[in-house]
Write a structure and sequence with these properties.
Number of domains: 2
CATH class of the largest domain: Alpha Beta
CATH superfamily of the largest domain: Malonyl-Coenzyme A Acyl Carrier Protein, domain 2
Strand order of the largest sheet: 7-2-1-8
Number of helices: 11
Helix content: 40-55%
Number of strands: 8
Distance between the termini: 40 Å
Radius of gyration: 19 Å
CATH architecture of the largest domain: 3-Layer(aba) Sandwich
Oligomer: single chain
Length: about 290
């Protein structure tokens, strides 16, 4: 049966992450600290000043720790993957594991990406539970809520929206009035939305300075929910900043190939829980759309 390895993205960070891995890779750890210009080990272990929750620090820390988890799997000669998937930032680790670029290239890309995303302040993101995308957008239209983008499709019953502070406030009022469950996310900006266009443009130019190899193992792209096509890595990575994370489509694609799909997540279980919910929803359609 097919086997997929999953890499988490921003939100999976925690104080103490990677402390069981850094000593196993002292050379790589020192090199990453030198490139970044600070003590990454201390930042992950102690989280001084809450820096680990800040986008420009979160993303590089997760990239390094995710990579070391994957290196440990390879060292143990664990079961190889038939597919790689990563959620947002985690897609960089999926591409690294598939041989699209080396560790240094990935770290430089993620460092730049994190800084660009951190600079896009003045908005945020919110998870919305229990509605389909069409019903959610219809509710916002009825309530006169404008400027909201769908930024993520995590499961068939959990969406993520993004917008400016004012548009999100209006969206929250609409959701509260309708009795719809939602949870603001602890992020600094409206990622995966139109509001990241200036970051996308700058990142697109930055990507021109790198050469990528074709993945040796299929990597499912957040932007399309399908495997990367030949020669599209730079294009997809820049588009990822302004387009939603299509996690549901990604998992549905693999389940359509073989419903017996097995998965392993690097460093956690949040993505595995999403996969389980998506798998369950194939047999049990969403029942809560009548809330709108």
């Amino acid at each position: 049966m097919p086997f997929a390895i999953l890499f988490p993205g921003q939100g999976a960070q925690f104080r103490g992450m990677g402390t069981d891995l850094f000593d196993c890779y002292p050379g790589l750890t020192r090199w990453a600290c030198d490139l970044l210009g600070y003590d990454l080990v201390e930042r992950c272990r102690d989280d001084p000043g809450g820096l680990l929750s800040q986008t420009e620090h979160t993303q590089v820390a997760l990239y390094v720790v995710n990579a070391m988890h994957a290196f440990e799997r390879e060292r143990r000669e664990d079961r190889p993957a038939d597919y790689y998937l990563g959620h947002s930032l985690g897609e960089y680790n999926a591409l690294l594991a598939a041989g699209a670029f080396d560790f240094e290239t990935g770290l430089r890309l993620v460092e730049k990406r994190g800084k660009l995303m951190a600079a896009a302040s003045g908005g945020g993101m919110t998870a919305v539970m229990g509605l389909s995308a069409s019903h959610l957008l219809a509710a916002f239209e009825q309530d006169g809520v404008e400027g909201i983008d769908l930024a993520g499709f995590n499961t068939d019953s959990q969406l993520v929206i993004a917008g400016t502070a004012d548009t999100l406030h209006a969206a929250h009022e609409s959701l509260k009035a309708r009795g719809i469950r939602f949870a603001p996310l602890r992020v600094s900006g409206p990622f995966h939305s139109r509001y990241m266009e200036s970051a996308r443009t700058e990142f697109e130019d930055f990507l021109l300075g790198f050469t990528f190899s074709e993945p040796r193992t299929p990597v499912i792209a957040n932007v399309t929910g399908l495997p990367y096509e030949r020669g599209t890595i730079a294009k997809i990575l820049s588009e990822q900043l302004v387009k939603p994370v299509r996690w549901v489509d990604s998992v549905h694609h693999l389940l359509a190939l073989d419903s017996s799909l097995e998965c392993e997540e690097m460093g956690g279980r949040s993505l595995l829980r999403m996969v389980d919910r998506i798998r369950d929803s194939v047999a049990t359609p969403l029942q809560s759309e009548s809330m709108v």
